Amino acid sequence: MSPETIAAAPTKTAFNVERFDRYVMTTYGRFPIALEKGRGCRVWDTEGREYLDFVAGIATCTLGHAHPVAIEAVTQQMQTLHHVSNLYYNVPQGELAEWLVKNSCADRAFFCNSGAEANEGAIKLVRKYANTVRNIEDSVILTAKASFHGRTVATITATGQPKYQKNFTPLVPGFDYVPYNDIAALEAALAKHGEKVAGIMLEAIQGEGGVRPGDKAYFQRVRELCDERDILLVIDEVQAGMGRTGKTWGYENLGIEPDVFTSAKGLGGGIPIGALMTKEHCNVLKPGDHASTYGGNPFVCAVALSVCKTLDSDDLRTNAYERGEQLRAGLQAIAADYSNDIEQVRGWGLIDGLVIREESSVTAIEVVKAAMAKGLLLVPAGPKVVRFVPPLIVTAEEIDLALQATREALAETLGRA
User: Fold this and answer.
1) Would you call 236 a catalytic residue per the annotation?
2) Cβ–Cβ contacts within 10 Å for residue 213, how many?
3) What CATH number does domain 68-313 carry, 3.90.1150.10, 3.40.50.620, 3.40.630.30, 3.40.640.10?
4) pTM score
5) What percent of the chain is helix, strand and coil (3-state, nearest 5)?
6) For this structure, is 265 an active site residue?
7) Which of 48, 85, 263, 368 has its CA 20 to 30 A from that of 99?
8) 54 is catalytic
């Protein structure tokens, strides 16, 4: 993106960083820009600078910013009914659940507010299944090293990254970790824990863990092992689901069906919603077992349903697949030109990672900052992976602009190294 394009901002708004930091808890390391508005795949900061947004709220803004369909859904539902208790039926919740069931392997859906909450619900479901169906009181759930499942105490315990668990002990018991895509390690863990293993919880493609796609043969063997032992296979689709991989769900790339899976992020296109989906045979949660005050209210479900319908009507799965192919081809060309520092490009659809060699002095955050200066927003996925997760409406022209900005940012960063 040219400096002229970036400078073509229509307005400026006064913003005081010190005032913000005075009142907001410092739980984030924020970049030094304040975003004020967005349209499509572009956002503007309070200084009027324009950016091409390849973060999309971290794989969340499925339809980009200010999409007419979402605006219409928000407006209509707020003028009709925005919240009622789950003590009553509401129409949008039923319609959204129907779409999810008809477009997945699930039979039932439960709605909450976030991916972490959806994963909490999955953990509870697995534990109740273990207790009531398999008569296991001290069950174990196996998850992958380098995984990410949320920020609650239970989901950071499920997350196989010690950096997220530090200083939050005691952690929740009943979890163990195995290397991702390593069937021998998984079988060893099954032998270690025996009949106590009640669930295996995996991401179809690891997002925060470095954009690592699942291996098809690995997941098919995991499915076989779960079937043999009556273990519930849980797939975390929070980042990969809702068309991001070029298919509705990440697990479709692996040739398997989970017993349970979770969604959030792209489901609402930026409106907070999470969902826990399950097959009927393990639908063990009953009235009083689980609940959410805001989960599934008419407002969030109406907006999420508009995202789902647009995924169909605008063929966004195909766009995600095709633009992903274009993006990876361009990144591979860049990687070839900088092979001393770039190890590989990996991903599916529009969740892709540019992997920097461990021995390189350059870090992902340095590339991200350099790209920001060029008018492109990117996000790290660990210290050595630059992640690309644009809205699913991204165009071929916007992919080309992002690739050019990435090349320039990389050249500048390596030139300083």
Assistant:
1) yes
2) 22
3) 3.40.640.10
4) 0.95
5) 40, 20, 40
6) yes
7) 85
8) no
